[in-house]
């Protein structure tokens, strides 16, 4: 049996491959655009470019199960995913596991529509599919820990909205659990971390661990976008991240249920542990 992982050189893909190597004797294949970037992964690598369908048949040859990690190019992902799903059908792949978005069917996040489109393609594919609706990555916010310490405040636009995030490693472990076991055909898992927290609570944890007063400063969506631009982010990226925070204020990043804990066999990584890791870097 063989398992192929798209986006093998990305942050999530690397974690999945590392965990798979510890959990299965199945053949593991990493799919990526740039094979040189994956030279350290220790698995077979095959070139696969979503935008070049001609690269896909050879990349998928002999694959039994495919982990489709959603692409990173917002606005292009639905077409890219279609190319890969079509190629998977033609290659006779038995099962696709897809990393979607928490509550993708009802999420107000701008990210959600391409996930909805991809889930619909999978449902119509005739293949055995499993959808992992990943919640927010804790790293999306702990990436701001060092700047917060340097600036003496943690800035955002999430108000008192709860964030049910988990670490990338948690989501990788969930994917590996599904990839290496049976009984997940047709399942849609809502993967949320617990307990959820606010950015005020995140700032308080940074303060506790550093011994410094790092308050949370809540800005309007527009002002937060300007602040992110001032920190060096391109305007479209800054606007996107500000919108995610604004949606978090309305509950878009919250979630409940125990799907994640059941799949990984433990509680999700505590926010405090993620803060500690960010500070150590």
Question: What labels describe this entry?
Answer:
281 residues; seven-stranded parallel β-sheet; NAD(P)-bd_dom; NAD(P)-bd_dom_sf; NmrA-type_oxidoreductase; Rossmann fold; SDR family oxidoreductase; alpha/beta
Describe the model:
Helices cover 43% and strands 15% of the residues. It is globular and about 55 Å long. The chain has 281 residues and is α/β, with parallel strands linked by helices. The strands form 2 sheets. Strands 3-2-1-4-5-6-8 form a 7-stranded parallel beta sheet, sandwiched between helices. The protein has a two-stranded parallel sheet with strand order 7-9. It comes from Paracoccus caeni. Residues 7-181 form the NAD(P)-binding domain. InterPro entries: NAD(P)-bd_dom, NAD(P)-bd_dom_sf, NmrA-type_oxidoreductase. This is SDR family oxidoreductase.
Name given to the CATH architecture of the largest domain: 3-Layer(aba) Sandwich
In percent, how much strand structure appears in the residues?
Answer: 15-25%
Are there runs of 5+ residues with pLDDT below 50, and where? none
* Derived structural class: alpha/beta
Main sheet? Answer: 7 strands, parallel
CATH level 3 topology of the largest domain: Rossmann fold
Q: Output mean pLDDT.
A: 96
Q: Report the C-alpha radius of gyration, rounded.
A: 19 Å
The total strand number stands at 9
SSE string, helices as H and strands as E = EHEEHEHEHEHHEHEHEHHHH
Q: What is the overall number of helices?
A: 12
At the first level of CATH, the class of the largest domain is Alpha Beta
Principal-axes geometry comes out as globular
CATH superfamily of the largest domain: NAD(P)-binding Rossmann-like Domain
Q: Into which percent range does the helicity of residues fall?
A: 40-55%
When the domains are counted, the total is 2
Beginning-to-end CA distance, first to last residue = 38 Å
């Amino acid at each position: 049996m063989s398992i192929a992982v798209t986006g093998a050189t990305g942050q999530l893909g690397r974690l999945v491959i590392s965990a798979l190597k510890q959990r299965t004797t199945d053949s593991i294949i990493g799919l990526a655009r740039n094979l040189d970037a994956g030279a350290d992964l220790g698995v077979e690598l095959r070139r696969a470019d979503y935008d070049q369908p001609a690269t896909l048949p050879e990349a998928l040859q002999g694959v039994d199960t495919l982990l489709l990690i959603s692409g990173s190019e917002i606005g292009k992902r639905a077409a890219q995913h279609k190319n890969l799903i079509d190629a998977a059908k033609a290659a006779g792949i038995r099962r696709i596991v897809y990393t979607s978005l928490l509550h993708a069917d009802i999420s107000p996040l701008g990210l959600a529509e391409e996930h909805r489109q991809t889930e619909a393609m999978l449902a119509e594919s005739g293949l055995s599919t499993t959808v992992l609706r990943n919640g927010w990555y804790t790293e999306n916010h702990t990436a701001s820990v060092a700047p917060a310490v340097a600036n003496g405040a943690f800035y955002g636009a999430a108000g008192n909205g709860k964030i049910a995030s988990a670490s990338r490693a948690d989501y990788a472990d969930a994917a590996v659990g599904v990839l290496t076991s049976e009984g997940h055909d047709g399942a849609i898992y809502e993967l949320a971390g617990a307990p959820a927290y606010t950015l005020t609570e995140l700032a308080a944890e940074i303060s506790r661990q550093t011994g410094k007063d790092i308050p949370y400063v809540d800005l309007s969506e527009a002002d937060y976008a300007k602040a992110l631009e001032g920190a060096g982010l391109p305007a479209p990226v800054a606007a996107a991240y500000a919108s995610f925070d604004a949606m978090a204020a309305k509950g878009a990043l919250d979630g409940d249920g125990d799907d994640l804990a059941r799949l990984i066999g433990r509680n999700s990584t505590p926010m405090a542990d993620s803060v500690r890791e960010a500070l150590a870097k």
